[in-house]
Write a structure and sequence with these properties.
The complex is a heterodimer of chains A (about 250) and B (about 300).
Chain A: H1 22-56, H2 60-75, H3 78-92, H4 95-104, H5 108-135, H6 138-146, H7 151-166, H8 168-181, H9 193-201, H10 209-237
Helix pairs in contact in A: 1-2, 1-5, 1-8, 1-9, 2-5, 3-4, 3-5, 5-7, 5-8, 6-7, 8-10, 9-10
Chain B: H1 2-19, H2 28-35, E1 37-42, E2 45-46, E3 50-52, E4 58-59, H3 61-77, E5 83-88, H4 94-99, E6 105-107, E7 120-122, E8 127-136, E9 151-155, H5 159-170, E10 176-180, H6 183-191, E11 197-201, H7 202-211, E12 218-221, E13 227-230, E14 233-235, H8 239-254, H9 257-266, E15 269-270, E16 275-276, H10 283-290
Parallel strand pairs in B: 1-5, 1-6, 9-10, 9-11
Antiparallel strand pairs in B: 2-3, 3-4, 7-14, 8-11, 8-12, 8-13, 15-16
Helix pairs in contact in B: 3-8
The chains are: A mainly alpha (about 250), B alpha/beta (about 300).
Family (chain B): Belongs to the bacterial solute-binding protein 3 family.
Organism (chain B): Leeia speluncae
Protein name (chain B): Transporter substrate-binding domain-containing protein
């Protein structure tokens, strides 16, 4: 006995008593989602690569730092990490600094979300980079060193270029994940896509939540699928003929 | 690959348009009689209207009123053994769950808005919620003008955000909007100094203050920005069931029993922490009780 009145045009409606439209809310939400995910991905890729490499180094203290980082950031739920960065950290810092974080820091929700999401994802990227390096035959490293490369040069010119190519498929998943995980930022008040969905479907009129939820799901699907295609293109373009087949 | 994706999209589209052919609304009373069950939607943290006590049982002012309606339904259908099925709902799920027949009554703190009346119906108003703001005691904020340049927190999906936007413009003050995911977090923003004020229904603010570590540290200030009538929600175009709901509520109001219920939930210690909200009846609510109405805003 469903009496739900479907109205897909609901997102084109004007927000009551305002000069904005619901689709504009969704558009700004999508903008923040993409901006957050891309910025966090830069942190995740750079820091993750560094940590991943650390874990493969012969130095015990350095590989310990890498392992500790991965275990800490991988074992605490993302939403809890965001709460810690946003609510707990300013209370632990000296009052002046804490107040600055709360009141004067530029874009506090956005920067916290980018930082938190980036650090969290870095732990996962680190594991993938490490796996890629470890998947290479041991002879490659020895060959690099035998040619007179320093350890740094061996990583830069021999190991990493191959390792990154191997881990493109898991990195693709991680890149897609960071877009989906960015939804958690609504918990600290970033007005991203899921936030805007909740804003429209909550106590707000119009009373058509199902349509809005469906449209938001479709938007996430489009974004994640685009990332997937772009990464597949990169994978194809960077393929080393005869070495990594790309699974085909 | 792309063709497959298109096909999948088309399939999803079909599934949705198929459900778009809404069936005719049958009477809720017939449905209850046929199934032997009345499904009552409740909230989990709308203190003191509808929330879970320490035994996870839904209680509250709206729940008490709903049980009176359930009694009336039992009498109307002559089914003393009618089973009551309690279904938790949230602000996002209550309308879909009502329209798809999962719940027959929604007993929470739902504002009777004209937009919502396109989807659902409301019983006569059982509460009128003035919207005001909470600030830290001692801060010099008494009116909307004082919010100029201040940070104001809004909970996602609430009507007060709309209210700020409207007033912000009308009074040409510049307010910095910050957001939180629920009321507890909004209150925390004020408590930790991230926000200067939280605009919300006065009764919800009173509940948050009463539950805080130091209730004296906060004050509810400012004018009433809007008074929202809360109503018990039911399906649209169902005059027989609506009559049972409205007659029951009007009876409770006329007999003065509502004053006892108000005393019990708003002026006495309530579970789970035995805190007294201490919120005397507003003139708006007195008027709503004297002249029961299901008019939306």
């Amino acid at each position: 006995m469903s009496t739900y009145q479907w109205d897909w045009g609901v997102v084109l409606q004007q927000v009551p008593e305002s000069d904005e439209f619901y689709y504009q809310w969704l558009a700004t939400g999508l903008g923040w989602t993409v901006a957050t995910a891309l910025s966090a991905w830069v942190i995740a890729l750079l820091l993750g690569s560094l940590i991943g490499v650390l874990r493969t180094l012969p130095s015990k203290p350095l590989s310990f730092i890498g392992t500790a980082y991965v275990e800490i950031f991988r074992n605490i739920p993302l939403i809890v990490q965001l709460f810690i960065w946003y609510f707990v950290l300013p209370e632990l810092l000296p009052t002046a600094l804490g107040d600055w974080m709360k009141r004067d820091m530029p874009l506090p929700e956005f920067s916290t979300a980018v930082f938190g999401l980036g650090l969290f994802t870095a732990a996962r990227v680190a594991e993938q980079v490490r796996t890629g390096i470890l998947a290479l035959p041991r002879g490659q490293k020895n060959a690099g060193l035998a040619l007179g490369f320093t350890l740094g040069q061996t990583y830069r010119y021999v190991l990493l270029p191959m390792a990154y190519r191997i881990v493109i498929p898991p990195l693709t998943s991680e890149f897609m994940n960071i877009f989906k995980n960015s939804a958690v930022a609504l918990a600290i008040g970033l007005t991203e896509l899921t936030f805007q969905m909740k804003q429209i479907t909550g106590d707000y009129a119009p009373a058509n939540p199902i349509e809005v939820m469906t449209i938001v799901s479709a938007l996430y699907l489009i974004v994640a699928f685009s990332v997937n295609r772009i990464m597949a293109f990169i994978e194809k373009k960077t393929r080393v003929p005869g070495y990594i087949s790309g699974g085909k | 690959m792309f063709r497959k994706a298109t096909l999948m999209m088309a399939a999803i589209g079909c599934a949705f348009s198929a459900t778009a052919f809404a069936e005719d609304a049958t009477s809720t009373l017939q449905k209850i009689k046929a199934s032997g069950v009345i499904n009552v939607g409740h909230r989990e943290s709308s203190i003191p209207f509808s929330y879970l006590d320490d035994k996870q049982k839904p209680i509250g002012y709206s729940m008490d009123l709903c049980y009176k309606i359930v009694d009336a339904v039992k009498k109307e259908l002559n089914m003393p053994g009618l089973k009551v099925n309690l279904v938790p709902v949230t602000s996002a799920t209550r309308i879909p769950l009502m329209t798809n027949g999962t719940v027959d009554l929604e007993c929470g703190s739902t504002s009777n808005l004209l937009e919502r009346q396109k989807q659902v119906a409301f019983g006569v108003a059982t509460y009128v919620a003035p919207v005001r703001m909470v600030v830290k005691a001692g801060t010099k904020i008494d009116s909307l003008d004082d919010l100029n340049g201040k940070a104001v927190v809004t909970t996602t999906g609430t009507t007060s955000d709309q209210l700020i936007r409207k007033n912000e413009k009308g009074m040409s003050i510049d307010v910095k909007n910050v957001y939180a995911k629920d009321h507890a977090e909004s209150f925390l923003m004020v408590e930790t100094g991230r926000a200067d004020a939280f605009v919300m229904d006065e009764i919800l603010l009173a509940g948050l203050i009463a539950n805080s570590k130091n209730p004296k540290a906060f004050a509810i200030v400012g004018p009433t920005l809007r008074a929202e009538p809360y109503g018990i929600m039911l399906r649209k175009d169902d005059p027989t069931f609506k009559k049972v709901v409205d007659d029951t509520l009007k009876g409770v109001m006329k007999s003065g029993e509502i004053n006892k219920l108000y005393q019990k939930w708003f002026l006495s210690p309530i579970p789970p922490k035995n805190i007294n909200l201490n919120l005397p009846m507003s003139p708006e609510l007195k008027n709503a009780i004297a002249n029961p109405s299901d008019k939306g805003v």
